[in-house]
Amino acid sequence: MLSPGLAQYKTLGPGSCGLGQTNCHTNENTWWQNDAHHATVDAFYDDPANYEKIAQLAGVGAANMLKGNQLCASCHGTVIAGKEARELEDGVSCESCHGPGSGYKDPHSEKPGGYEKALKLGLVALKNVDNRANACVRCHYITDQKLLAAGHPDGAKFNYISGIKKVAKHWKRQPAGDDLLKAPFEKAMNAKGPVAQIVKAEAAVTPAPASPLAAKTVAISEAPAKATAAPVLPKTTRAETPVSQTPQAFVPRPPAPKPMSTAATVPPAEAMPAAMPIELPPFPNVSDTASVGEILLMVKKRLELLYQKTGGKE
Q: Could you say which of 6, 123, 288, 298 is the most buried, measured as most Cβ atoms within 10 Å of its Cβ?
């Protein structure tokens, strides 16, 4: 976001400031075309999945992330005046740091006094280390909570000194003295505020529901059989199966039968001797309120009675 004092000026774009032309900025543009700032738009095409994800979570939307009137454009490219609704074509260029050039483009090259005149017409005084640090911090240090929650890097570990050394390649002098101080950059960061410690947006997404089978199992185990059913007895292991509250005669647990095939376990009805009928009392009525444990106990007693009637023989 430009400072209020620059809002009255318009961004002309790199094509108006020496790019492809023979003038005083030819060397600077040669540097720019080989610098990382030139490729800030290319990054969207090189890693679309990552950028689209951030844009989507930040509320910009993948379809709009390259448009000049959206949040991403304020740092990732040059928004030319009158083309705000279009997609970015140029990366971070001269006017992104030096200020929109409609006011100072021609006056700043006048001699003598062109530089001082341009400072009153929108040119940012980047010879001042504080102004320079603020220009870097504007995009290299992110505190916007929406962007951070979307997974955008905060830039808190950005190396200002190595960055300045790279940028200084288009200066007419070598960086020295105050140029290489960290203090102005740290001052600008402190003025912008700390990086918020917030939960990333993707971490707040509602967890995927459990599998249908698991959900069905939980529903069956937790829901009562009927609205009027008695409370379900606590879950127990096989050895802890609850017994009926009515005292019962102790019946020894029969030894486990030897393994046999299914066919041998349940012989056909016609194979049963006609002279040896087995009479058993009626199976007790099972009430609607009977618990699983009580039903299992009834079945157990029935099997034990059958075992006794058959004389404990296979």
A: 123
Look at residues 228, 224, 239 and name the one whose alpha carbon lies nearest to residue 296.
Answer: 239
Q: What are the structural domains, with CATH classification, of the chain?
A: 4-204 (1.10.1130), 232-309 (no CATH)
**Residue recorded with tokens 């194979």:** 271
The encoded tokens of residue 249 equal 């005669």
What is the band of 151 on the pLDDT scale with cuts at 50, 70, 90?
very high
C-alpha span between 142 and 148 (Å, rounded): 8
**Secondary structure (H, E, C), 17-71:** CCCCCCCCCHHHHHHHHCCHHHHCCHHHHHCHHHHHHHHHHCCCCCCCCCECCCC
- Tens digit of pLDDT for each residue in 1-10? 456 567 889 9
Q: Residue 162's pLDDT is what? A: 95
Give the separation between CA 276 and CA 115, rounded to whole angstroms.
121
Cβ distance 102 to 118 under 8 Å? no
Q: What's the Cα-to-Cα distance from 58 to each of 87, 95, 138, 139, rounded to whole Å?
A: 18, 26, 18, 16
Nearest to 302 by CA among 276, 278, 284: 284
